């Protein structure tokens, strides 16, 4: 199966991490696992055969940012990503299955409507631009919803799985970054 249609599951993540942790430990270095979906991390930590949380001294760090600052960053990032419409167009299949692989990612399903209609609309560029803006708004809204879901999952991992998590609030860092961006504008 090609990369566009195959899923990278929590089990796939788990297997990759286990192999790479062992490789890194053989070099007497400390492995860092950065990012990943909460379900991936949960699979790793809760696996009863591998016993990750019993084998390794782990430190979980949650870098958090105030929601309003995060929303501004999401909007800026999505606006930057909007220029990638042509990349999606090259791989777009009008009647494709959007339930697997890359097609499930944020941006592709939302752009589906725009890409389908762009090919069929003989109207002016203003109409196409309106459809594109609606797709971009949808991406922003869905990204914010995903962030809220991720935050809920982090809270659940802390409360239900009793993971020790160091909560770092980095809003000031992101605000400083924003001030630098505004100064450069």
From TrEMBL:
Q: What is an annotated GO biological process for this record, any one?
A: tRNA modification
Database matches in Pfam families: IPPT (PF01715)
The UniProt entry's GO CC annotations, sorted and at most eight, read: mitochondrion
Identify the keywords attached in UniProt to this record, alphabetized.
ATP-binding, Cytokinin biosynthesis, Nucleotide-binding, Transferase
Tell me if Membrane is a UniProt keyword of this record: no
Q: Which GO terms of the molecular function aspect are on file?
A: ATP binding; tRNA dimethylallyltransferase activity
At the top level of its lineage, which domain of life is listed? Answer: Eukaryota
Q: Which family does it belong to?
A: Belongs to the IPP transferase family.
Q: PANTHER family given for it? A: PHOSPHORIBULOKINASE_URIDINE KINASE DOMAIN-CONTAINING PROTEIN, TRNA DIMETHYLALLYLTRANSFERASE
Write down what this protein is called: Adenylate isopentenyltransferase
Which species is this UniProt entry from? Solanum lycopersicum (Tomato)
């Amino acid at each position: 199966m090609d990369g566009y249609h195959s899923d990278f599951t929590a089990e796939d993540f788990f297997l990759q991490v286990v192999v790479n942790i062992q490789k890194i430990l053989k070099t007497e270095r400390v492995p860092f696992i950065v990012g990943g979906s909460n379900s991936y991390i949960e699979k790793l930590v809760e696996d009863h055969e591998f016993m990750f949380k019993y084998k390794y001294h782990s430190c979980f760090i949650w870098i958090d940012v105030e929601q309003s600052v995060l929303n501004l960053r999401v909007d800026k990032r999505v606006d930057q990503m909007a220029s990638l419409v042509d990349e999606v167009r090259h791989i777009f299949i009008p009647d494709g299955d959007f339930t697997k692989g890359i097609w499930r990612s944020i941006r592709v399903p939302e752009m589906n409507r725009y890409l389908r209609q762009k090919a069929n609309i003989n109207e002016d560029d203003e109409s196409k631009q309106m459809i594109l803006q609606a797709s971009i708004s949808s991406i922003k809204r869905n990204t914010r919803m995903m962030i809220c879901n991720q935050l809920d999952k982090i809270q659940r991992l802390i409360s239900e799985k009793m993971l020790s998590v160091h909560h770092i609030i980095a809003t000031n860092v992101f605000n400083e970054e924003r001030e630098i961006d505004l100064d450069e504008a």
